[in-house]
Amino acid sequence: MNQPSVIKGLLGSLDLRVLTVQRTVAGSWWNFERVVSPFSRLWLILDGRATVKHHGRTFELRRGALHLVPAFTLHDCRCARRFDHFHLHFLSRVPTGIDLFSLLDCDWQVSPPLEFPKLLRRLEMIYPDRRLSCFDPEHAEYPRLPASLEQVENDTLPAKWLEAQGILRLLLAPFLTSARRHEEGAHAQVTRRFLAVQEFIHQHMSESITLADLARVAGLHPTYFSDRFLQLVGMRPLEYLMRRRMERAQYLLLASGAPVKKIAYEVGLRDPAYFTRAFTKYCSHSPSAYRAAHGL
Prior knowledge:
By secondary structure, the protein is of the alpha+beta class. The chain is about 40% helix and about 20% strand. The protein has helices spanning about 5-10, 115-125, 160-175, 185-195, 195-205, 210-220, 220-235, 235-255, 260-265, 270-285, 285-295; strands spanning about 15-25, 30-35, 40-55, 55-60, 65-70, 75-80, 85-95, 105, 110, 180.
């Protein structure tokens, strides 16, 4: 299947959700290092200057630039003086629960059409309550999320929801011009080589899953499946499963006020102490510290 067909297939059933949207004039306090979040960021620069570093590059954020930082992307942000911009935080998930831009490579900074500021102003009008409540430099960029992002779209009127979906798709379209299937990323490799396994993990995340379960879905002997998975993806199946669990846990820690014990259960780990150790190893913070770092 050619590249355009693959990408169009992903877009057909895309789950898009606006988390926050607003215009902000930042100053020299806009300095954050090693930021990783379970949602994507889109910045439209109106005036001033800043930099962001990710994917091994440093990008200059100047007037007229539209910049995308995908979910789960480690990045550093810096502003020396003044930075006037719209910022949009959003989810873009395919049916298996993976973020769209984890499956694609593209140009992360583009020159957008002139009407894009109007589109973002309209999103502000549709979602007037989705604004950051704090810009304390001691906290992460995104200190607060709605209490239940899984259900928040249900409260939006159908006409406004549909309009917002159209606007968000228009905002993302310039990046898809250069999009190509990610050849190296673990999520892309699993989706391409073991789609049924990816779907099984997504559907049974809250359950106990063994190597034998995954091998059975793939129709292979467990040992051969594990070796083949390692060869194609670069990690063992159970290591990948834990990565998926921890990414889901990051999202739930920010998107809900559920106790850590409940979140551990929801990602299939019945021992809260083991969950805390695994999360700390993966994210370099305990679950509670991860929440506190995001102002929750």
